């Protein structure tokens, strides 16, 4: 099946054999992961869509693909509009679309290992109004027709030493056990891959750029645990590290193992655990208590060791990025470079550090109009030349043993236009406003989001993505529960020790994209005369901004001072790590405005 049309036809044929009138295909795995292994890239195989978020619904006579605002342009480039209707999730959800389009009396299939229970219950209720049924399939029909579907990774597990974790796995399990006792629970299921990695101080290579192992865990109130991973992935070092309190079981045993908790009170996270887990426990007679995974907040609030590690990783990464920016300033105007070649050069600079474990995500390398695709992923077909008179946007990061980085810079190639300078400066103003924010304890990221958008809003423009996401400690580059965003109900209070990105942007279709991203650490802030505890941000990322894109005349005195202070820090932190022409260039870039 070399064409997407043939793959769609094959899926429909399999659906008919299975007695299904429709089937839902998400980008997801059995752990509700944002980034998934190759074996779980079902939506990409079926449709050609290469984004990290989306779903499709296939009916007998029509199909639709659902994407958010980040992928409005990309989905049209990658997915055939003759085969799929394009639906923005802000306009209509998968469930609402089914409520309108599912034929009366139809049977709509879904894989209970790829959806949450809440989603399934909502879909079931919506379809009931259509006199249609939602069916949990025993075998995923797409897997049945994906003949060369990759096998899940069997990469060996790795130990994350306490010198980087800052807390032993035994102490983390003890904290979970204490929480279980407080909640009156016998055990809790930990299904999210980064939660498993964090709780047991292990890492893996099962997902590109995200150092997590594919596995489940059940932690009990006595501090013991069961860890479900493929036995081929274990090493003697990992077994010794985990110790006798952790029973190792085959990944494939997890569904049946849930049946062993008959009559026990089990905590399950409804947001991070798939519907099948609830089904298995309910069928076994367990008492399910819906509770947030107890590692989520603990993982997000970095301890002192993790914070120091992050700072070391950011400094190291800033030097690599600064070397790249100097190289780009010299080479890009000469011509002959493209998105792939410059992304490879940036990876080469990062790779000069023996502490680099991997990139933290696939580099977003967007030249000219491709920079307007805010989550663009370059390939051989879309690869664009770096041309004079354009902007180049590069969003990238590294996975280091002591921290995870994520940084975006926008660079002018040749002379930027007045419009480019204006929009860049407005984005910079929003970035500064968030970086300088002082706010009371209990404030959420949703309350702060407007700070980064205000200068764009005042000019009637905006950007269709969140302003900030959490970042892990040698874990996922996108980590919750905190987020700085104007949509989606992000009501998680920011807490000292959380790390977020600060990344406002602007995107003009078919022209250019702009984003400025640093990572920021939530910290306590002393405010003279304050009548309550206050918080603020410490910037962690250090690499120069493109001075040519800054209109100093529209910056306030405080904004100019922020830029000057920031560049002084860049020179102080990055300067000792570079030399020669790069150091001279860095000094020029970091001169006061």
What does this protein structure show overall?
There is one protein chain. The chain is 35% helix and 20% strand. The chain has three domains: 4-145, Creatinase/prolidase N-terminal domain (Creatine Amidinohydrolase, Chain A, domain 1, 3-Layer(aba) Sandwich), CATH 3.40.350; 158-292, 3-Layer(aba) Sandwich (Creatine Amidinohydrolase, Chain A, domain 1), CATH 3.40.350; 301-589, Creatine Amidinohydrolase. Helix 10 links the parallel strand 11 (225-228) and strand 12. The N and C termini lie far apart (58 Å). The strands form eight sheets. It has a six-stranded mixed β-sheet with strand order 4-3-2-1-5-6. Helix 16 (418-435) runs antiparallel to helix 17. The protein is built from 19 helices and 28 strands. With 593 residues, the protein is α+β, with helices and mostly antiparallel strands.
């Amino acid at each position: 099946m070399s064409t997407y049309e043939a793959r769609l036809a094959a899926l429909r044929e399999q659906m008919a054999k299975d007695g299904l009138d429709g089937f839902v295909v998400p980008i997801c795995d059995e752990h509700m992961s944002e980034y998934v292994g190759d074996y779980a890239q079902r939506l990409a195989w079926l449709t050609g869509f290469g984004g990290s978020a989306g779903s499709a619904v296939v009916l007998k006579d029509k199909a639709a693909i659902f994407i958010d605002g980040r992928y409005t342009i990309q989905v049209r480039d990658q997915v055939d509009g003759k085969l799929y209707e394009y639906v923005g999730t802000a306009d209509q959800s998968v469930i609402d679309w089914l409520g309108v389009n599912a034929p009366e009396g139809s049977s709509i299939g879904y894989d209970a290992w790829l959806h949450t229970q809440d989603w399934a219950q909502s879909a079931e209720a919506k379809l009931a109004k259509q006199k249609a049924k939602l069916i949990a399939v025993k075998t995923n029909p797409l897997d049945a027709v994906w003949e060369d579907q990759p096998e899940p990774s069997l990469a060996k597990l790795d130990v994350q030493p306490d010198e980087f974790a800052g807390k032993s796995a035994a102490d983390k399990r003890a904290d979970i056990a204490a929480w279980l006792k407080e909640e009156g629970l016998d055990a809790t299921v930990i299904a999210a891959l980064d939660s498993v990695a964090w709780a047991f101080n292990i890492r893996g290579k099962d997902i590109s750029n995200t150092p997590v192992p594919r596995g489940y865990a059940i932690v009990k109130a006595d501090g013991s645990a069961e860890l479900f991973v493929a036995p081929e992935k274990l090493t003697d070092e990992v077994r010794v590290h985990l110790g006798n309190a952790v029973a190792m079981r085959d990944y494939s045993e997890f569904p049946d193992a849930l049946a062993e908790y008959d009559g026990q009170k089990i905590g399950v996270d409804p947001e991070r655990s798939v519907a099948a887990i609830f089904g298995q426990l309910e069928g076994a007679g367990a008492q399910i208590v819906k509770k947030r995974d107890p590692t989520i907040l603990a993982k997000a609030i970095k301890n002192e060791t993790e914070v120091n590690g992050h700072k070391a990783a950011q400094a190291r990464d800033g030097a690599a990025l600064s070397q790249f920016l100097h190289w780009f300033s010299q080479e890009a105007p000469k011509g002959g470079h493209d998105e792939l070649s410059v992304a490879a050069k940036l990876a080469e600079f990062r790779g000069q550090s023996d502490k680099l474990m991997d990139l933290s995500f696939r580099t977003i390398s967007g030249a000219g109009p491709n920079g307007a695709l805010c989550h663009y992923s370059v390939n051989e077909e879309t690869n664009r030349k770096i041309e004079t008179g354009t902007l180049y946007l590069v969003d990238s990061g590294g996975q280091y043993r002591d921290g995870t980085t994520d940084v975006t810079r926008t660079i002018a190639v040749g002379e930027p236009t007045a419009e480019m300078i204006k929009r860049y400066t407005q984005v910079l103003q929003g970035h500064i406003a968030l970086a300088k924010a002082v706010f009371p304890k209990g404030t959420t990221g949703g309350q702060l989001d407007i700070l980064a958008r205000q200068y764009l809003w005042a000019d009637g423009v905006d950007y269709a993505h969140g302003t900030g996401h959490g970042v892990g400690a040698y874990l996922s580059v996108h980590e919750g529960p905190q987020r700085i965003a104007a949509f989606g109900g992000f009501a998680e209070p920011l807490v000292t020790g959380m790390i977020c990105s600060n990344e406002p942007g602007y995107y003009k279709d078919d022209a250019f994209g702009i984003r400025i991203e640093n990572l920021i650490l939530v910290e306590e802030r002393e405010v003279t005369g304050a009548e309550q505890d206050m918080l603020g941000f410490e910037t962690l990322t250090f690499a120069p901004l493109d001075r040519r894109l800054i209109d100093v005349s529209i910056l306030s005195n405080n904004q100019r001072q922020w830029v000057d202070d920031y560049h002084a820090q860049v020179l102080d932190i990055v300067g000792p790590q570079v030399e020669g022409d790069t150091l001279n260039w860095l000094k020029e870039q970091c001169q006061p405005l």
